[in-house]
Amino acid sequence: MYKFVIRPIVFLLDAETAHYFSFTMIRFFSKIGLGLVFRKLFVVNDKRLEREVFGLKFKNPIGLAAGFDKDAKLYNEFSDFGFGFIEIGTLTPKPQPGNPKKRLFRLLDDQAIINRMGFNNSGVFDAVERLKKKHRVLVGGNIGKNKVTANKDAVKDYLICFDALFEHVDYFVVNVSSPNTPGLRELQDKKPLSDILHKLKRANIKNAQKFAKNEKPILLKIAPDLTNEQLIDIIDIVRTTKIDGVIATNTTIARNHLKSHLTLAEEKGGLSGKPLTNRSTEVIRFLSEKSKKAFPIIGVGGIHSAADALEKIEAGADLIQLYTGFVYEGPSLLKQINKAILKKES
């Protein structure tokens, strides 16, 4: 129904308008009690799907990637579609509008999306107020820096977000890999990245003591455009900083072998969807093999089918996340993936 009825109607709208329209409809459906219907249609409850990763117990290995529910508005509602965890953000200390519109584009011929949103969000403290309600699902907090913050001061922004969210999320993701904030990817270099992660680790210990809670897992989200030498650096950084894992990968700035019209394909921003499938899997496999599975990996990028998901898992991903595949394929994709995992494990 989604692909043949709902998607064609929604895709008549501008991509960003469609995103907010979808939020409005999901909120409405939830308020009138259709969340229960969604759960019956899409949720697969089976103990064999449970995963324990970096000390957290996930109902299933499929998460919603950051960027979809930036401001933590519908994390409980999205769990009705069968997600085992929801990642909110990217959040910054101060609210910011993001880049000028038009900034979100569908590449239908490639089953892809280009975005240059620019960390548009209402600010971490606004999100915290919504995160105070009871969670029906594990929630990750993806944190970044404000556009106006110089890279030399970036760690301050990450620390503000970390401290504000500590009591309200189950794990953290450090986003230094979005291509849509000028200079942000420079923070992936070994020295500045190590500095940020070391200071976040110290903040983790401090907050755990302050609130008499366990430390929260900290993960690093990396770009698919890193070279093998840079990926080796990432492995070394994870080892030396003792963070808990890696999310591979963010969107790409590459524009290889796209079928869409040249004018559309050359829009600036991060590309996600099917064109990213192979590269993200390559990065997962490289990290897993070269590190000898020394840390957990969340695989994301171009998962549009159960086969894509299984390929990521076989390459070394402990968990996976959806974004563009969820937009193109709809919530039935989650059920297909979970059933495929159960079939493979039976």
TrEMBL record:
Cite the InterPro entries for this sequence.
Aldolase_TIM, DHO_dehydrogenase, Dihydroorotate_DH_1_2, Dihydroorotate_DH_2, Dihydroorotate_DH_cat, Dihydroorotate_DH_CS
Sequence ranges assigned to domain Dihydroorotate dehydrogenase catalytic in this UniProt record: 49-342
- Domain of life where this protein originates: Bacteria
The cofactor binding remark recorded in the entry reads: Binds 1 FMN per subunit.
GO MF annotations in UniProt: dihydroorotate dehydrogenase (quinone) activity
* Annotated substrate binding sites: K70, N115, R116, M117, G118, F119, N175, N180, N250, T251
Which parts form a coiled-coil structure per UniProt?
Answer: none
Sorted keywords for this record are:
Cell membrane, Flavoprotein, FMN, Membrane, Oxidoreductase, Pyrimidine biosynthesis
Q: In which pathway does it act?
A: Pyrimidine metabolism; UMP biosynthesis via de novo pathway; orotate from (S)-dihydroorotate (quinone route): step 1/1
Which topology term describes how it sits in the membrane?
Peripheral membrane protein
Binding residues annotated for FMN, in chain numbering: A66, G67, F68, D69, K70, T90, N142, N175, K221, T249, G273, G302, Y323, T324
Location (main, coarse): membrane
Q: Which cofactor does it need?
A: FMN
**What Enzyme Commission number(s) does the record list for this chain?**
1.3.5.2
Q: Where in the cell is it found?
A: Cell membrane; Membrane
Q: Pfam families, alphabetically?
A: DHO_dh
Q: Per the similarity annotation, which family is this? A: Belongs to the dihydroorotate dehydrogenase family. Type 2 subfamily.
Protein name, entry field: Dihydroorotate dehydrogenase (quinone)
Q: Which organism is it from?
A: Croceitalea vernalis
Gene name per UniProt: pyrD
